[in-house]
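Hey,
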Amino acid sequence: MTAPFNPHQNPPDTTSFGTDLKTAEGVPPSRVGALLFRLRELWWRLSDTHRILLAIALVVALASGVFVLRSLDSATAAAGDPEVGAPVLEAESELLREGPGSETSTAPSSVVPSGAEPEDALMVHVVGAVSAPGLYRMATNARFDDAVRVAGGPLPEANIAAVNLARKLVDGEQLRVPAMGEPVAGPSENTGAAGNSGAAGALGGGDTAAGGAVPQKVSLNNATAVQLETLPRVGPALAARIIEWRSENGPFRSVADLGRVSGFGPKMMASLREKVSL
């Protein structure tokens, strides 16, 4: 049975400490062994209270060291990574709003970021059955589908099959998404090629004979101001009123709606009825 510990007793005999650590031949202890020997000797000289306090101090120091090391690792990792939550493309979150009928919430990469206005960017006017009609700046490689998504997506009543979503955009053109049941005028700009889509959508809606003998009608919903001015008695002021009206009220539902534009009376309507279409 082991005798109780007496803090005032002499420390254990350490004359053979080197022999215990190495071999029975009495090889002197190494530096590490000597250090351990000194620590052991000091430990035996301490009282129970001092030993407890020393053990607590060692535990606290060890825990503090672990905490500091982990904090340094976290700070180093954070410094090497991009800022958490930093937007990759601010304009995508600002311009793209998932509208009814939209099947995706991924922002199109063809949107030009706000504040960045490269000279080769496109400006298009999206109207018709979309959630947010308006002017949008797009990249040069943008498609009709990108413009529809940026405008909030098609409305439930949109006739999306009547437009060519794969068509490339042209700077300064107006893109119209028709509603279901709404007449689509001739070869719309939604199906035209990138180089002549604006003219193809603005002039059409009437029957054309072989060789173009029958003149095409001017589309009230797609024509530019220059094309509207080709109509009899329509100058820059009246052309601007037509464009302003359809921007504020949406596409014309019938040719008779032209009478709701200021400056178009009964006589004016009679002269234009056979020369315009939707």
